[in-house]
Predict the structure.
Amino acid sequence: MDLNLTWFLLVGVLFAGYAILDGFDLGVGMLQLFIRDDRETRICYNAIGPVWDGNEVWLVTGGGALFAAFPEVYATVFSGFYTPFMLLLFALIFRAVAIEFRSKESWPFWRKSWDIGFFTGSFLASFLIGVTMGNIARGVPLDADFEYAGGFFTLLNPYALLMGLTTVALFLMHGSIYLVMKTEGDLHDRIRSWVNPLIIFFIINYAIVTLATLLYVEQITDILRQQPGFFALAILLLLAIANIPREISKGRDFRAFLSSCSTMLLLMALFGIGMFPNMVYSLPDPANSLTAYNGASTEKTLGIMLIIAIIGIPIVLAYTVSIYWIFRGKVKLGPDSY
Amino acid sequence: MDVEILARIQFAFTIAFHYIFPPLSIGLGLALVIMEGLYLKTRDKAFHEMARFWTKVFGLTFAIGVASGIVMEFEFGTNWATYSRFVGDIFGSALAAEGIFAFFLESGFLAILLFGWDKVGKRLHFFATCMVAFGAHFSAVWIIVANSWQQTPAGSHLEVAGKVMPPDYLPAPGEWEHSRMVIDNFWEVVFNPSTLDRLSHTVIGAWQAGAFLLISVSAFYLLKGRHSGFARRSMKIGLAIAMVSSLLSLVSGHSSAQVVAEHQPSKLAAMEGLYETTTNAPLTLFGWVDEDTGRTIGPKIPGALSILVGGSTGTEITGLNDIPPDLRPPVQATFQFFHFMVAIGGLLILISFSGGFLWWRGILWNAHSPLARAYWWVAVFAVFLPQLANQFGWFAAEIGRQPWIVWGFLKTSDGLSKVVSANQVLGSLIGFMLIYSLLFALFIYLLNKKIQNGPEGASTETYTEPDWLKNRNS
């Protein structure tokens, strides 16, 4: 395994970590709008209160790692997808401050406004993340210098939009399961009844995206055709999804959540396998595609970064686990709550 | 307006807004460690209540710092893609290290700091507070490393289309796409010539921002006659930090300027408004630069600049006349921002030590003393001074770096994203202005509300000084 593949994997792990962790924050951000009672809404906010900020750090670190390991990819995607990324930033800003500001006043108008801001920010962020992934997978026009050669509307193709919608569905499902795990009583039962419809909504979206991928995204289909072993992952994925309603019905909320996390990990793994070595596929001229090799930093930098990662990742995992352990269990509103 | 000026305005605007908050996180972080440390040591509930109050303020500033901070990481790629390609091999590592070493630490333990008061023991909570403060400082380390490398590049070389180039080679316009800086030695990048001085100066400036927030809020309570016990304690901690850091700021500022003199002579000349290369160079105290005639008008101390830079009047200082016009930074802006920063730095020393003097003489807490009341009024508004000094200092540092984005290697105008149009940047700039105005108004509103509500708990109202803290005069 060379350094480029290692960093392709590590950047993938960081973004997968982001999707799994901030995915439920964004899902909760969307779902809270459908809860009328203020106390229950507060429980939703506080379910992610202590952790959302750390979860967003996965995106920040993923972005930093992309910049360091694959500067060409970072530069091409961030400048090429200028307007969607600015909207993503606005969405993330609103999401962050809505959580912090909402509890500071008790007027219904104030709280409702932040609930709407929280919903909009979470929805837009989820959708745009999906659109971005859809585009780099399907392919966007790149020139010989790897500069983006399309326009804003090039990015709004049906495949990317469908991927955006699927990501929204995925985060909704994931967020609902997280909330089931963190709530109790009447609220718990109500959110629990949302889980199955949300799973079905996700599966429908996912089935359509998969069909579209098989029909229109040849480069990914080709890779999977050459390596049929990877279909095992797709089967595992289906089993992981199917396991969610089973665990929920048995009242094992935590295991349902783990199952949902596994689903997302497998989705990201399949995405990575379908992409490698491409990082941004170029369409119509595949020769201009950015890969983990032509878009990378020098071997030396990748090596230095690997040392940083080897030191950093175990520490990060250790306190991530500790924080989740300290804040485990059902949400109880207290004097420090949002 | 063209895309370059818009992109520069957007970066300046977003970083200036962002930079209101990290110094407060760093400065308040230090203050929180002191407060909780005192609580653990003395078991005095008042320190606990104090820490809880300031934690809430910390949480508010931190949230906006996070929200506006992620913008910065994106903007290198969105607006400065050519720059990003050029420096990715070096600059990216520092950003990634900041994420993995500092941000995870900070955000993880922040959860315990904000929400863990009843979930973990006192000692673990104190540990979490220390880790948050350490994380805030550590993130400053990495971002200053990255920025200092841009100012004084080291541990790296230039490659054009994969070929190693001599350091003074400036690629032709078409070559930028295929040029990049390549790392030679990681530690030389980290400890490039300006890192340590600029880091210490920045962190000390952040301590002052935190200290003066403590001083200002305390002075407000003293003026209103509310929470007097809380206010005294907070102001003492604030003044202690302010006195130490305002002096250290002078020292670190001086050595930073010496590094500038050695490595960025055109920036030093602009900071000082010096046109003629000369020994016995004068120090202009304040004034106006006439960029057309190349003269700086204002009171000067003969020889003082040469002494400050080299220790003797014989030290020759390069003037702007010996720097090609296209390699000079905007002189007036650099000069004025630098001089305002220095002036505020002096004022902060004065305010800190007069507060310390009044404290020592036992006058500071006397509501009947006109001197104390006058000081409280000054202290309330002094909160803006370190913020302005921090902003102006960075303006001087970054405007003085022009026309370079990476000193001696890449010009700012060559670092832009090629595929981003002026209209796109204008759109996002307007978006940022609207959103940040809203955020700033809400921040001020909520901070004011927090201050008006004051700390919770009875012991902050009825205050008796414990023996060990008793001032000899009060």
Observations:
- Chain B touches chain A through 70 residues (CB under 8 Å).
- Residues 341 and 389 of chain B are 5 Å apart (CA to CA).
- The beta strands of chain B are 156-160, 163-165, 179-183, 283-284, 288-290, 295-297, 300-301, 404-406, 410-411.
